[in-house]
Amino acid sequence: MTDLAMTDNQTAAMQNAAQALAETRRLSGKVLIDGQLRKAQAEENFEVIHPGDLSVIGQAPKCGKADVDTAVEVAHKAFVKWKTVAARDRGRMLQKAADAIEANAAMVERVLALDTGNALRTQARPETGSSIDLTRMFGGLAGELKGETIPSAHPDVLQYSTRDPVGVVAGIIPWNAPLFLFVAKVAPAIAAGNTVVVKTAEQAPFCVLFLAEIMNRELPPGVLNVISGYGEDCGKPLVEHPAVRKVTFTGSLAVGQAIASYAAPKLCPVTLELGGKNPSIVLQDADLDLAIPGIIDGMRYTRQGQACTAGTRVFVQESIYDQVVAGVTAKLADIKLGNPMDEATDMGAIISAEQFQRTLHYMEIAHNTPDARVLFGGQRPSDPELGKGYFYPPTLLDGLPLTSELCQDEIFGPVATVLPFTSFDEMIVNANDTPYGLAANLWTRDLSRAMEYVDRIEAGFVQVNQCVAPRSNVSYGGLKMSGLGKEYALDSMLNHFTCSKTVLINRGTPNPGL
Ligand code: ADP
Question: Is residue 332 domain-shared with residue 441, that is, in the same domain?
């Protein structure tokens, strides 16, 4: 790239940031309730920063019970009408909402990058695209909300089941892929005839509010409501509200368990997408032209490793270990860390001080572990521009025992460990040796080994010879402590956002079929 082009990119980055900042300032202090962006009842706000330079980009309301109650009451009122709108019409409105997001995509992705620190080109733009795709898909699937007829023992008795919305749905979302996770919850819920109240993550509230504002223009007031706040103050009363009949959550295991416990007394169903400590496995016969870039894609380094599906434990068969490590480290050197708003940047900034400290904490453990080797990264960048934000390079380590916290805990930062193995059986046991069961990736040319791995691996999202991110129309969810239920496909709408009645109608025959 020439110096002149760099200057153009940097100028464009500044303009992008300024435009997005104008939007976050406009959204500052607001919630979306009853079709309107309005001031929250909560008096207090909290600051939201851009992780790339720690500048304050706005204030989000610290909503508590009062705002929760208002949002849920509004959603409950809207539900009475929304459930009577024909499913096809609900779907059409959602598809229009997808069109509206598409028409505003350039600004949506900028606000997303400013809010999260995720790089515009590699993350914010694709996430905006997949959010449009998912919204459109659920809009199209609204016609699939069908019940079943049940064979009857008597011709005078009609037996069937209905497929009905459940009521007000509460969504609680994290900051790492806020738009995609938002639409993964609201699009199927709304298509199915429910109304929703979503609590955004405190680290990245504005991109979701901005998206909701755009979608809301195509929906009746009160169908889609968005509030902000902290977990205990806002998330808890939202889950516990008696009118909330379904909860859908993405986030950490500990909070998922808390949310399930809040919902339990009212027997309210809960969908949970939680963490992962996912294996990426390379067998000695693998095509390394697929495996080496696949491991890097799998680590989600361009999202700073902040992905539940990140393949953070790389198991490589001993005979090809050095070759794989050399190939991966050579490619990691190509990842350009920098200003998230700059088109030239591959990898942006870690979301928050807390997450940044978390990465530093695990790296300190690594640096203090005898035999641990830093194969790539492992130090904060020396560029003073990057010192202004939460930047940390892609990092690859080896020499850590499987029992190390680095091999056991979900770090949610750009840190992966590589481990050699000789025995396939032993490797599978080790790969499964975590409480999580979210994703797993294997590279091999041996179909029989691939099938054995699919059979024995304890994960809900299993890939062979690739490691792509979850996407629309591909059912996604974890086993073990990684969650409850699947998302992103038709079954998620039917299984998680509807209930059914079994109906038996008799034309007037006494004791039919008895
Ligand atoms: P992460 O570690 O990715 O930040 P968390 O699980 O802490 O994930 O947070 C995910 C979402 O859950 C956020 O919107 C957060 O505010 C919310 N949350 C955190 N604690 C609670 C709680 N006790 N009750 C309800 N929601 C919570």
Answer: yes
State the CATH number of the domain containing residue 154: 3.40.605.10
**pLDDT tens figures, 2-46:** 455 567 999 999 999 999 999 999 999 999 999 999 999 999 999
> Is residue 354 lining ligand 1, measured as CB closer than 6 Å?
no
Tokens, residue 159: 């037996």
Active site residue 23: no
pLDDT over 50 at 56, yes or no = yes
CA of 238, closest atom in ligand 1:
25
Domain annotation covers residue 112: yes
Domain containing residue 121: 11-274+482-499
Q: Are 252 and 303 found together in one domain?
A: no
Please pick, among 63, 207, 308, 467, the residue that the annotation labels catalytic: 308
Report d(CA 117, CA 54) in Å as an integer: 10
**Total number of domains constituting the chain:** 2
Q: What is the CATH number of the domain that holds 376?
A: 3.40.309.10
Q: Tell me how far the alpha carbon of residue 297 lies from the centroid of ligand 1, in angstroms.
A: 26
d(CA 68, CA 73): 8
The pLDDT tens digits of the residues spanning 296-308 come to 999 999 999 999 9
**Ligand 1 touching residue 178 (CB < 6 A):** no
Q: Is residue 505 part of a domain?
A: no
DSSP 8-state assignment for residue 192: T
397 contact partners, CB below 8 Å, separation of at least 6: 366, 372, 373, 374, 375, 378, 406, 415, 416, 417, 418
Q: Are 339 and 52 in contact (CB under 8 A)?
A: yes
